[in-house]
Amino acid sequence: MRVHVIDGANGFVASHLIAALLARGDEVIALARASADVVRRRVADALSCLGLRESPAGRLRVRGLALDRPDLGLPVAEVFAEPCVYWHVAALVTFFPRREEELLNVNVTGSANALSAYERHARPGSRYIHVGTAYQCGLESEGPVPEDWPSHAPPDRFRNFYEYSKREAEIALARSRSVREGAALVARLGVMVGHSRTGRALTDYGLYDFLRVIAFFARRTPGERVRIPCHPGSGLHLTPVDTTVSRLLALAAADPERPVSHVVHGTTVPVRDLFGVINDRLPIELVAATPEEIRDRPFSRFEAVVNMRAKYTATYFRHRYDFAWREATAPPAVTPQVLDRLVSWYVKEGLPA
Predict the structure, then answer these.
(1) pLDDT tens-digit series, residues 186-220
(2) Spatial CA neighbour of 8 closest among 126, 168, 130, 99
(3) What is the pTM of this model?
(4) Angle at CA 157, nearest 5°, toward 152 and 162?
(5) CB-based contacts of 227: which residues, under 8 Å, 6+ apart?
(6) What distance in Å separates the CA atoms of residue 12 and residue 46, rounded to the nearest whole number?
(7) pLDDT tens per residue, range 136-151
(8) Whole-number Å distance between alpha carbons of 304 and 126
(9) CATH superfamily label, 3-192+238-263
């Protein structure tokens, strides 16, 4: 049994990670700005999502987290009493404008503070795992994005400031003592989605933000045809939470071949296939269109409104991404059956009434 310290514990990935660790008998110290009741409820939901009924109350310790305070405001003597795996999962995820300062405070300065607390207090034999995003690559598109430390790029080289902030956090980590000593790893995730066997999702980000927007218009004005600008070869690196957590745990337990890993599969879900499943489940016809097709026949008023509302997530349809990946760290590919499950569950259970 190892001790795992996990910040951002009430988040989607972190709560499922905690649930999986508790289920296999490990000790977990959960760190979060949210109250202990909220964290325990999120972890209980994740245990249920993973098909487990065990209550986490007996073995889960929850402590308050403040990314902007010295030592994160933690009782460091307790949190770092034993060698641990420290998972830095806490992050602000938003694609909306005018959040730049907040993104820098949480994702860059907050990450640096988490690393600093770990390096000051963690016992020998500990390991630091930074959970990042494969999309820190920004608009780089020539060849597969390597599993390597990034170099600095200006904010205009990214689709949104969130990507920029996550890249800056990795650049700071690359210069750290933990990396020099081989005690730090980066796990870059793809587009997080729900459980591969049930479709259940406890998040409204990413794919689900897009589904929520499309469902709103489909139910309000059923039967409309909407073109969405897409790269001809666009596909999504969807990563179900259950298989992603399994690969994260395997990565944490192994001797790393290299410090940076893409926890994605090389086989993507074509955007056209995603649109087909959505069209089967909602009263709307989404069509993947090239920018040239839209230029030659401009949007109708309805199409323009839908695209404006969906623009923060739909921007990922406009590029084709390739990431270097290894079978040992990649979750299984999302099959058409799993894709249908993911969309169907959210349409039936996850959308606002």
Answers:
(1) 999 999 999 999 999 989 899 999 999 999 999 99
(2) 130
(3) 0.95
(4) 80
(5) 287, 288, 289, 293, 294, 299, 303
(6) 8
(7) 999 876 779 999 999 9
(8) 52
(9) NAD(P)-binding Rossmann-like Domain (3.40.50.720)
